[in-house]
Design brief:
The complex is a heterodimer of chains A (113) and B (113). Helix content of chain A is 0%, strand content 54%. Chain A has no helices and eleven strands. The chains are: A mainly beta (113), B mainly beta (113).
């Protein structure tokens, strides 16, 4: 289930189940929305992005959904594996702002064997 | 093709000293971004540079912090007279011209004692 920890919300999921990570964004002028995965002690790793004129995009085991009406972004991970344990961040990108990224607060995913 | 290289990985400085963080972008990348991350938080944009130019430094504190990306050599983030509040992980990202995806380095973890 999902719980709010001291700082980062944490999603505990059983290995093999699907994970859904949610993100609310603030800037309706953003051109791209990106999901990053960050493992402990490492830099963010690009997972998937979606352009603002799309509402769904699929990758390998991941799907990103964009709902511009409520400014909501989600990342679905199919058949979650132990290697998926990490902190996941959504980020907004505005091309007019030089492609600098505005990151959300992050969700920690813990995969239970 | 090596990824974005940051050094040092860990840096300890006493209050009042200077910290110099280096970032070598991926080969062929002309855009460099610096971000700061506090524990359990998302990354916060600091500065965006192209070769020999600062494009956007809106996220960088006005005092004590400076950044450069010379024609030759790595990008440098310099923090003068460090204070305990500067302790954080500093990440560099690079991208080629006109490309929205940024690739992150492994970060430099600065500890001010």
């Amino acid at each position: 289930g999902e719980s709010v920890g001291l700082h980062l919300p944490t999603l505990s999921v059983q290995e093999g189940d699907n994970s859904i990570i949610n993100c609310a964004y603030s800037n309706s002028a953003s051109d791209y929305f990106i999901w990053y995965k960050q493992e402990s002690g490492k830099g963010p790793q690009f997972i998937i992005d979606i352009r603002s004129n799309m509402d769904k995009r699929q990758g390998q085991r991941v799907t990103v959904l964009l709902n511009k009406t409520v400014k909501h972004l989600s990342l679905q991970i199919a058949a979650t594996q132990p290697g998926d344990s990490a902190v996941y961040f959504c980020a907004e990108n505005m091309e007019a702002a030089g492609n600098k990224l505005t990151f959300g607060g992050g969700t920690r995913v813990l995969v239970k064997p | 093709n090596a990824g974005v290289m940051q050094n040092p990985r860990h840096l300890v400085r006493r209050r009042g000293q200077e910290a110099r963080l280096r970032c070598s972008p991926m080969k062929g990348h002309s855009h460099v971004y610096w971000y700061r991350q506090l524990p359990e938080e998302g990354l916060k944009f600091m500065v965006y540079l192209q070769k020999e130019n600062i494009i956007d430094e809106s996220g960088m504190p006005k005092e004590r912090f400076s950044a450069e990306f010379p024609k030759e050599g790595p990008s440098i983030l310099r923090i003068q007279q460090v204070v305990r509040g500067d302790s954080a992980a500093y990440f560099c990202a690079s991208s080629p011209l006109g490309f929205t995806e940024a690739f992150f380095g492994q970060g430099t973890r600065l500890t001010v004692v």
